[in-house]
Amino acid sequence: xxxxxxxxxxxxxxxxxxxxxxxxxxxxxxxxxxxxxxxxxxxxxxxxxxxxxxxxxxxxxxxxxxxxxxxxxxxxxxxxxxxxxxxxxxxxxxxxxxxxxxxxxxxxxxxxxxxxxxxxxxxxxxxxxxxxxxxxxxxxxxxxxxxxxxxxxxxxxxxxxxxxxxxxxxxxxxxxxxxxxx
Amino acid sequence: xxxxxxxxxxxxxxxxxxxxxxxxxxxxxxxxxxxxxxxxxxxxxxxxxxxxxxxxxxxxxxxxxxxxxxxxxxxxxxxxxxxxxxxxxxxxxxxxxxxxxxxxxxxxxxxxxxxxxxxxxxxxxxxxxxxxxxxxxxxxxxxxxxxxxxxxxxxxxxxxxxxxxxxxxxxxxxxxxxxxxxxxxxxxxxxxxxxxxxxxxxxxxxxxxxxxxxxxxxxxxxxxxxxxxxxxxxxxxxxxxxxxxxxxxxxxxxxxxxxxxxxxxxxxxxxxxxxxxxxxxxxxxxxxxxxxxxxxxxxxxxxxxxxxxxxxxxxxxxxxxxxxxxxxxxxxxxxxxxxxxxxxxxxxxxxxxxxxxxxxxxxxxxxxxxxxxxxxxxxxxxxxxxxxxxxxxxxxxxxxxxxxxxxxxxxxxxxxxxxxxxxxxxxxxxxxxxxxxxxxxxxxxxxxxxxxxxxxxxxxxxxxxxxxxxxxxxxxxxxxxxxxxxxxxxxxxxxxxxxxxxxxxxxxxxxxxxxxxxxxxxx
Lengths: 182, 523
Known about the structure:
Distance between the termini of chain A: 47 Å
Radius of gyration of chain A: 19 Å
Oligomer: heterodimer
Order of helices and strands of chain A: HHEEEHHHHH
């Protein structure tokens, strides 16, 4: 698989006027994980869309894939990974992130791939990530994900975690000892 | 109600820190008519303020001022700026503790005698023993309303406990129960009963768990003899030409340097801040820091041999439902060198929420080995292992020569490396912990490395001989008549047990001693 099957990077200025809806529509025609348009990204199934302001769209798309490859959960949708790295889409953070993703793509090219997103199997992407895992860029992204990904309250139910229970009087009358398979 | 004392009132006892040591000492002295000013670096939070969200609570309560780390312990790599997870608030780490309230075993007061020569370990007998401490333990258990003591019922077992108990019994362990906990199983002492809510580490919103923040502190204040100044960071203890301490300089809540005069000073800032304060108080008369003629201030830092084991099952456990530390296995706590190490360890259930599990399960790890474990979060059971670690002179707290806090005071560097005995004990515990879960049908077990330290001990240790330690059998500095240490830093050995009950018992005993010394004009 190539980058094009996962994303469409639109570099044509005449498409800049395309509305989100149009792009979403074109996106649904693809089996891609998400589509990159000028200034924003959207899931191919239109489950989520986000605008990018400081980062190049393809940089952000790569960052999202990198996030999933670092902490892959197949039952967790892209929107959680997008939320987890959205904070890097700022004027302040962008130069370092662009530089980091250039590094990542260079590491992919060293292994004979076009770029990181063009690598079809997670296992092969992980091999590329492993060459970078001691770099400050990788550690920054990984470290940020620990809270950026797992501290999203909306994600907790996907893992069964119920969060606070004080507002419901704790579990004393709500199954603190309800295990039934021992 | 606060009793405002003048800064130049040189009749007060100044206590630095308001946790298990300082908070209890402050109240016990106030109850007996002694005037006390307690300086607390943190703010004041009560049950209605606690937040049942792991990271938000961490931001509210944890001591996150800078610290540096060195040594071969993994915490220095994974949490280089956060060697300890302790609380900066009125009530100190009694806000955050899980409530396990265990007495030392008799031999643990005399580790040098019982363990013999252990290469590289700076073992020393305490100048006190089990018989001396028994009545104080009883008073401490009564103060904390510890379950399974004084006729109080144990807590019921939650899911995490029931898995743990079944595995323990399958292995033939006999000392298995929901433990002695400073968590009410019935309403008692103006505290509610446990509602099995979880989040014990984030401060108990029911007040079912004992904390000095809402017991000893307000009760001491109600006497009119205790004034707690919060957001007051102690900077330096001052002394006179006679070598006796005369007062404490501190930064008040507005960042202004103040000086409170004192008749007696008691240091109870936990095992990092207490030696830090003594070292930062160096003077021409005491160039190596106060109370440091032995050179032992800051040394023999102990943090307990800790580890965790999580087991993953093919069905749900929901370990977060209920008391965080919900039960204990004590069979391995004995001293039995045939296992390949001296001392012993306790196994205690532990549950973390998903956010902390992600942070602490295997810090720095990534990829599917890590994430598939988290995918089974709902089916996990967990335990924490706490064992006696060896005091080593080279494990120590020193002042950083480069990093300073917001007041310009040098922060501590925490240097720690495991002793071979610690490693042997941890490996044994990993094996036993995994076997417990395997016995209940675990499909996977996860031997989890130590977290940032919650039990910080030994850096101003108690000794009979002034050359071997910092304080005597009363926690009184060998070098300075009116200077005391009142927290876990006075521990000569770490023992296998969670330290809070012992800190409280020592504080109650010290209060009794100080009242006597004041009455007989020795102070």
